[in-house]
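Sample intake sheet
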Amino acid sequence: MMAYQGLKTLGRAVSAALVLGLALGLAPSARAESVQEKLDALGKLTGAERQTFLEAKAIEDGKIVVYAADDPNVMQAWSKAFHEKYPGIEVEYVRMNTRDMMQRVVAESKAGRPVASLLGGVTATELEYLKSEGLLASYFSPEAADFDPAYKDAGGLYTAHWVMPEVNAYNTGVITADKVPTTIEELITSPLGSRIGRLQSGGRWLAGIAAVSGKDAAIDAAKKLALLKPQLFKSNSDLTNALTSGQIAVASDMHAGNVEIAKSRGAPVDYVVPEPLFLLPAYTVFLKDAPQPYAAALNYDWRLARDGGQALYAEFHQSGPRKDTDYAFASVVAKAKTVVPLTSEVLAAIGDYDKIFRSEVIGQ
């Protein structure tokens, strides 16, 4: 009973303190504005007013952390160029593969200790996972207003900052261009057999085939490819090294940029444009619990801008989604008869195609 009376007395004291606080104009603190609410408010501003407001708020944030799977040379150049334009904002790019990236952002978010505000180099595979975990904020960058709908989400959950043609590369010291397979049928029935190499992750490739010719054609391609016993590699670096050394004669479904980089360093490599030509987008996404939302929005816009991140791609043999920028591989896309962007819609069932590739080609 005494304990109850004590609680009543305490309750009256707290109530009195609240009344006194209100009388003095000391209202209880308002709920903190969420990242999404900040982005929605920013979206209502336009032009110079928006940019002035965003830059001021970004400087208040003072820094931004980006987890990315992009080319490390590009990331270094982007970090330097962004900081030179906005010296009041520190940029930290943390490079990691997408598997480690997903594990890290989920763990940090669940622990309530988010570190990164943006993710870069994300493909459609990771997009589905991030959406299922509810980790994404919606952001509409004005820089993406004229982008092809294939390269941005209608709901603002992602925007492509990088688009790369996937080509059939070859070692010029081992094979001539006329002997390199270009069509899917030529590839999966090639007499080169195990002199062909590719990445061991083949779900995207099969999904692309299915988008053009149907699922049965994709399954058939996997079965015929398996008969060739191609050499399979874990990473793009391993695939590039095998091609430049002559360990393999042909590397199928390879980033055109990697071929050009190796070629610029004196490697005996080149490529042919396959039919169909698959274009692989990589996306920037905004995390819903971004610690530096305004600096993140400013960086998001900058990396998509013609005079920002996109202007640096030519130096590193990279390509992007802008229509008003001359990218290194515009002629490659122009030469192709059939162009298939590997969008989230095309890769919606990539899990199924990954299983098919592992079962038929890898034997798992």
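Comment: The mean pLDDT is 91. The longest helix spans residues 2-23.
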